[in-house]
What does this fold into?
Amino acid sequence: MVKSDFLRRTVVALIMAPVVIGSIVLGFPYYSLLLLMVGGMLSWEWSNMLASDRKAVYATVYTLSMATFVMMQSLLGILLILLFSIALVGIKARNEKHKYLLILGVPYISFGIGALMLLMLLYSAPAVLWLLFVVWAVDVGGYLVGCSVKGPKLAPKISPNKTWSGLFGGMGLAALIGWGGAYYFGWENSSFYVYLAAVLALVEQIGDLVESAIKRVAGVKDSSDIIPGHGGVFDRVDGLIFTAFVLLLGVVLYSMLR
It folds into this structure.
């Protein structure tokens, strides 16, 4: 990455970060509005990069399914809306080239956005902030170490720029931030969050690679060009929504087994 691109990415990130953090700290309804806005943009980008000629239809359906997580407390209601949305997209996408990926977009985006909402509802703002900073740490650590050390490629056929050194660098910084965040929020057994953050860093990288693989199938470099220097919204939150869902699932399973 050339210096000018790095500076542009940094400036845009510094502008966006306070908006995101502010909505989390202020809570509802600002957080809900942020998630619905992000979800709608993800929906449009998903349809756009898969070359669908029904972008408005898919964006509406995805946003509807995500709104159920934001506004509804009924698990049955959520499942019914999701099934309806998947069926509707399936009917609309039956003649599309990437019809199965278009259908996958409904649960993929909805579960990710829904997990971010439920983390706020169940565990409040500190939990969401902790996850957000851990995910950011993965990206920063991966970039700094990967560019400095380089070395063997992580998944050259999917994402040629990612290296094993970048993965370990991201996991290391995420572990440090995970511990620091837990200590700052006064959580018990803060050392546990070192390991949790490292595992989530690995999950974040998997989420990033999943989106990279989808973009390769679609034949696009970025999900869109809406964010200067960063590509699309999906390019920024692919790891976050993947990690949020896995974290929420892990917490629920742990609570059930206790």
